[in-house]
Amino acid sequence: MRRLPLRPLSALKTYSLAQRPSKVRADELARPLPKGATVAEFLDALPRILAAQEFRDLAAAILAARARGRPVLAMLGAHVIKCGLTPLLNDLIRRRMITAIAMNGAGIIHDFELAFAGKTSEDVASALEDGSFGMARETGEYLNRAAKAAARRGAGLGESVGRMIAASSWPYRELSLLATCVTHDVPATIHVAIGTDIIHQHPTCDGAALGKASLTDFRRLAQVVAGLEGGVVLNLGSAVILPEVFLKAVSVARNLGARVRNFTAANLDMLRQYRPTVNVLSRPLSLGGRAISITGHHELMLPLLHAAITEGLPS
Hints:
By secondary structure, the protein is an alpha/beta fold. It has one domain: Deoxyhypusine Synthase. The chain contains 13 helices and six strands. A six-stranded parallel sheet has the order 3-2-1-4-5-6, sandwiched between helices. The radius of gyration is 23 Å and the shape is elongated.
């Protein structure tokens, strides 16, 4: 094999490290925390690099949006409720830090079951073996009844379920995200994909009623999105449904003349998925805005975000 001649490196041009732009500086590094440190001290001790800085920026964007009277829309996958995080979301609603909620169809199931029975999330693998998966009677009866009531009144599914829970005497109704939205006049929309939720298995399910109520909620979400300029949209754990719904809501809002631009879009999930990346963080921001993506478990990330927001509120 022919050997190529090696060029001498004596002619290489170098420069002083002091002249080179660098992405990491000493004053941006993390700092150890003393015992008994406060939340503010913890947040300040995080490195000012990559996701840690984006996390700070997200909390700051939410606080700034609300200080200017701009909306904060939280779109949830149902896993967020299953992870025990509704008390934190309810608190942010009461503090007027979240101004609208959107969920997929599974969200109403976990919200109802927690309010009604104080428990939710069955063992799918074992229940599937004998066909008992999804067959809890009360879940199907109450939620399908709420869907029919929504269709009769021309209401959305989120509002109907929220009003049902808020008006009940169920022992855990204060845990309900939808009831909190109703009592604080916060729009809550539910976006159903027929066949994906356990209540669709029940004989009480009326597909026409579900479709009508969910379509009403889509139109309501489009109205929320129409006012999103200067605000924040959070996609918390929805990999498919809500990114797709959000994209269409943006199109409807713009088609009707709304300026939907210059907002912050954030995706928080355990994995980076295609649809949240493209339909929440990329395409809707082509006219301006900020995209933030933070990867981590909901049961860790959302409490941290709640703490960062509440720490930034005036005393």
